Amino acid sequence: MQDGFVKVAARSPQLRVADVDFNVAACADEVLDAVRTDGAKVVVLPELCVTGYTCEDLFWQETLLSWAERGVARLARKCADLDVLVLAGCPALVAGKLYNCAVALFGGRVLGVVPKLNVPNYNEFYESRHFAAGPEDCALVDFAGFSDVPFGANQLFRCESVPGLMVAVEVCEDLWVASPPSVRHACAGATVICNLSASDAVVGKTDYRRSLVVGQSARLACAYVYCSAGWDESTQDLVFSAHDLVAENGSLLAEGRPFGERRATSEVDVQLLQAERRRLSTFRVAVTPESVGYVTSSFSLKPAETSLTRRIDPHPFVPSSRSRRNERCEDVLSIQAHGLSKRLMHTRSEHAVVGVSGGLDSTLALLVTARSFDLLELDRAGIVAVTMPGFGTTDRTYDNALRLARALGATLREVPISASVRQHFADIGHDENDRSVTYENAQARERTQILMDVANQEGGLVVGTGDLSELALGWATYNADHMSMYGVNAGVPKTLVRHLVRYVADVTEDDELSATLLDVLDTPVSPELLPAEEDGSIAQRTEDLVGPYELHDFFLYQVLRRGFGPRKVLRLARAALGESYDDETLVKWLRNFYRRFFSQQFKRSCLPDGPKVGSVAVSPRGDLRMPSDACANLWLKELVGL
């Protein structure tokens, strides 16, 4: 369970209605298989699985109830040597009333008995004929041969060996009501909610059931494990489909299809859930469960590394399906264009100045500006596209910059910078043959001065081109491409920039524009500040210097959005991108990410305005309030020896 991952399983065993011996053996076999095959540490079985849910008036029979209680004791003994928390459904007779309950079993004992709070008595359900609604508050009872067992809904089961693993239970209908008990459980500290269910199969119910489970996991920033009865129940009037689900914080991790697998297994990440709750200021958790009337029972799992079977998205900013990716691109372009439109309206500007290099970022900025002018019904001639060839400009990027401006109907201005930069070198006494940072940054600052002055001439705004990934790494020249009057790309990571440009290339009806955009996409990312190679190709490749943006965007998401530490980020990177990068490469660029991220905050502390488009952003006025002189040592130390 290193790094907060805990394997959970929902299992719907084959049952016989009212045959307790058969059912206990079947449940034990499922638990054993879940532990040995999947490494499960929490196993959830269906509602009333010890007896079968569809026993109806047999629940009034003393014989069935006494056998059920003894069956729970046998199931506890059968699972005693397994390193697993088991949650199983059974009827429980307490103080002369019968309750529909979940029992928590660990180490051969009953940790607690959790009754169903909301007993349905509508449509096909007649549970209140047999069962009473359970109490919220806990009392100690004797059950299944054990004394002083907590009985009541307000219970949590805390794992002492896995920080953050706090399990709570609700039973079937409890999820479907207006105020589910899982809300209280989560506010009391539960990170994993388990639901033991017998939900019958009705046309359309599968989608609704899934949406409830996934939605509840999102609302409560929790993991939700849902296990439902299968078609071994009586089919006299109803059929049950064994629909099993594992969800986490709004994502469906595993699903046993109705009338299919009869199981769902995945690892849930309690560290992620804790980080999410820390981030959400409106998510209020009790100081202790006991302070809000909860009884907590402890158990301890053996330390072990949980194998990862869930998909770790290698490109967290870019949806994998084309349809969702296109929707994302359209949303992002709309946010960018409307943000710029508001700024133009507010400043009463009918001109925008964009420095176009023929590279990805300036291409996207120009596309967004054109869309913004269309929204405002302004003449695109008011877009001043300024190309500023210098020492490293290649014919390829220069030609693409010209073609883009023409295709989009912008006003093109060409201002070569070589002569002015050479004059600047002479003024400050810099040798042009010294290709140091001064040589590079002097060009970047000259270009920004030109853009600002042209904007003054036109009475317009300089539209910034720098993207989120560059800002995270500090890959921008301070007071040069770092600065603008509105940075439309500030919230867009580099991996998504590529897809935005490709999306426009795919949907435009302008063949020349599409061809140019595709060539821009095929051009290596470069600041073009060093002279080209002898064959005219780009000499300076950004990803050779700072590392692959594919990796840095992955790191950025895990660090800022998830709050994970270096060791866990590296483990996730191995799982997601290990086939493309060896371990040495991953560690090298992760170290570089942390060094640059910490040392370059001073640039982010004075960023221009720009729209946030996703869940990760670095604006000092919004998502990232970070000191400019914070030290990276703790994070870098965690990578030593990895």
**End-to-end distance:** 18 Å
Assign the CATH topology of the largest domain. Nitrilase/N-carbamoyl-D-aminoacid amidohydrolase
Overall pLDDT level: 96
Given helix and strand content, the structural type is alpha/beta
What number of domains? 2
Level-2 CATH architecture of the largest domain: 4-Layer Sandwich
Order of strands in the sheet with most strands? 13-12-11-10-9-8-15
Our Rg estimate from Cα atoms comes to 31 Å
Shape: elongated
Tally of DSSP helical segments: 19
CATH class of the largest domain: Alpha Beta
Strand element count:
20
Describe the largest sheet: 7 strands, mixed
Low-confidence parts: none
- Which percent bin holds the helix content? 25-40%
Q: Approximately how much beta-strand content do the residues carry?
A: 15-25%
Q: CATH homologous superfamily name of the largest domain?
A: Carbon-nitrogen hydrolase
Model description:
By secondary structure, this protein is α/β, with parallel strands linked by helices. It folds into two domains: 2-299, Carbon-nitrogen hydrolase (Nitrilase/N-carbamoyl-D-aminoacid amidohydrolase), CATH 3.60.110; 322-546, HUPs (Rossmann fold), CATH 3.40.50. It has 19 helices and 20 strands. The chain has helices at residues 20-38, 62-78, 181-187, 205-219, 270-279, 322-346, 360-375, 395-408, 418-428, 437-458, 468-473, 494-507, 511-521, 542-546, 549-561, 566-577, 583-599, 601-604, 633-638; strands at 5-11, 42-44, 85-94, 97-106, 109-115, 139-143, 146-151, 155-159, 166-171, 192-197, 223-228, 244-248, 251-256, 263-269, 295-299, 352-355, 383-387, 411-414, 461-464, 486-487. It has a seven-stranded mixed beta sheet, with helices on one face. Strands 5-4-3-2-1-14 form a six-stranded mixed beta sheet. Strand 9, helix 3 and strand 10 form a beta-alpha-beta unit. Helix 8 (395-408) packs antiparallel against helix 13 and helix 12 (494-507) runs antiparallel to helix 13. The chain is elongated and about 100 Å long. The model has no long low-confidence stretch (mean pLDDT 96).
